[in-house]
Design a protein that fits this description.
The protein is of the alpha+beta class. It is built from 11 helices and 6 strands.
């Protein structure tokens, strides 16, 4: 239905008590500095989320790379994983790991939720759909989370990247493909349709707030389709997400074998987060494995 821009979710109460101004988190270097500050104030904190699921970690690293204009393949389908956007990302994640500034946990699994509730985790750079956790899963920290644009990799650079999205498929053998398209066209491209999808309804009383529409005319920061979110202290996530979405670099290409690459790149990213591989080793090994096993002779 629409993109899931990356945002920085943070525990507003802890960040404030540590003396960190969220508005200062404009670069990933600043976020590292803020994590050190939080840990100085709260020694048990390991402030930055590090994703321990192979598939989700690959999707996550792609978000950081996309933010820098990178992707696993270029527009011609050539493998571009061994490149600066990925190297910069993995070098940063390795710094978080080596300084003990991260909590390695699987998204929404018990360890993840427990460390977010008890204040061990304070910063979660993640897709907009992280908002599901404070709304449905977190208990002690519900209402204490806030969202903002991601930091930039270079000062003044894009403050968002794309982390996942959804698509609709009309099967070739469907009985009424034209009818199916008419429904989809209505839901995505007409004001009545996308307002019904994202607006308050029986299933989502405050509206569907885990993504935003992919149709530009629907994206007015001042005309929210879903309501402010109590679990974010009444914050207007619509405005934050729409403004972030407008900064996502375009031209992102996803290869057909992306899911299979998890056996190589996703696995190797976990080895980096366990301190067993360097950023260069991850990229060179993954590139060789993907080229050989998924792409064939170059």
């Amino acid at each position: 239905m629409g993109p899931r821009p990356g945002l920085l979710f943070y525990r507003e109460d802890i960040v404030t008590q540590a003396g960190v101004d969220p508005a200062s988190l404009t670069t990933y270097d600043a976020l590292l500095g803020a994590a050190r500050t939080v840990r100085d104030k709260f020694p048990k904190a390991r402030p930055i989320h590090l994703e321990n699921d192979q598939f989700l970690a690959q999707l996550w690293v792609d978000m950081f790379a996309n933010q820098q204009g990178g992707a696993m393949v270029d527009a011609q389908g050539k493998l571009t994983i061994d490149s600066d956007p990925y190297r910069t990302t993995l070098t940063w994640l390795d710094a978080v790991r080596s300084e003990g500034l991260g909590t390695l946990a699987k998204y929404t699994q018990p360890t993840d939720l427990q460390t977010q509730d008890n204040g061990t985790q304070v910063f979660v750079p993640w897709a907009q759909w992280f908002v599901f956790a404070p709304q449905q899963l977190l208990k002690a920290s519900k209402g204490k989370w806030r969202a903002m644009a991601l930091p930039a990799w270079q000062a003044g650079g894009p403050r968002a990247g794309v982390m996942g999205g959804s698509s609709f498929v009309i099967p070739a053998k469907s009985k009424n493909p034209e009818l199916a398209w008419r429904l989809y066209e209505h839901l995505v491209f007409s004001k009545e349709g996308y307002t019904a999808v994202y607006g308050p309804n029986d299933v989502y009383p405050g509206g569907l707030n885990t993504s935003i529409p992919s149709y530009l005319p629907a994206l007015d920061p001042d005309t929210p389709l879903f309501k402010p979110i109590d679990a974010l202290g009444g914050q207007d996530l619509w405005k934050v997400a729409v403004e972030a979405g407008q900064q996502v670099p375009g031209g992102y290409t996803i290869p057909t074998w992306w899911g299979k690459a998890v056996d190589y790149f996703g696995v190797n990213v976990q080895k980096l987060l366990a301190g067993q591989m360097s950023p260069d080793e991850v990229l060179k090994t993954s590139a060789t494995q993907i080229q050989k096993n998924l792409m064939g002779p170059s």
